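User: Show me sequence and structure for the first protein, then do the same for the second.

Assistant: Starting with the first protein.
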Amino acid sequence: MSKVLVLIPSRMSAQRLPGKPLLEINNIPIISHVFNRGLETKLGEVVVCAEDQEIVTAVEKNKGKAILTGKHHKNGTERIYEGLQKLKIQDVSHVISLQGDEPAINPEDIKTLY
């Protein structure tokens, strides 16, 4: 049986809209909405990989799982790779990188990637 891991890269220093992950929709941060969309797929474990402690704290406050990654990454793929290394989860067959700024993404669309 294959093991799927959904990882969500996130950072506060976006060029176009700094602080975007913590902007709220219905009193819930955007990053937590994205985390919940990942859970709704029921594909596997969902983890936010964030370079900012504020994001980790917000995700955990909303009952999600997040880890802190370095600030040196050039892109989300590098952040995902560090997160995968830090998590040390064995036997992962698929890693889905879910963009942290898509709070309205349809979980069924995510499932088509698998």
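Switching to the second protein now.
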Amino acid sequence: MSNILEIRDLTVSYGGIRAVKGISMDVPKGQIVTLIGANGAGKSTTLRTIAGIVKPQTASIRMDGVELVGKSPDQIVQQGVTLVPEGRRVFSNLTVLENLKIGAYLRHDDLSDDIAYVYDLFPRLKERNWQLAGTLSGGEQQMLAVGRALMSRPKLLMLDEPSLGLAPLIIKDIFTIIQQIKDAGVNVLLIEQNAKKALSIADRGYVLETGRVVKTGRASDLLNDDSIKKAYLGE
């Protein structure tokens, strides 16, 4: 199976602190891959570096064979990589529809089919089409953040803690939609505090500890690994 994303020897430092210490990982085409680990393990830094927001000390990050290191965030979006950051970060003073259109700011074609697709995935957003994003519930804002990212037609959708602070029923909906996005042909790289939920929908997982990959494998194998259960699954 070929890979949509290949990372080799990724090292990132903040000042004198090395946050990511030479990790290598792949996202195979057609899969959901999850990164799990404690706070400070380097998960968000990895996603932010792929997106071009953080500059690495060393790395090769190749998307569909194209090197991303050295490209701007805009250029990386054009290569098909989109990040939904932790905390949602919708434009609170703009409507739902305006937020979605901002997600397509690099496109110059008709957006109507993509808007309809987002509203099919998230019917609640369609109901709130003209509502200001800042007045939405936390779950609705997360749906809007994902929908906005999909408007750029990504090949790889990166999600940083999509269930953070959400009610259990909304979390269930979000994870169902992540699977639907994968089934529609979008690859997914997922960071999630709920490791059990993440591993239950992922195809492959990587365990990060203090900036290093300490374990990797099929998500189903990691879900049944005693050390993973003890450290991350609360068992």
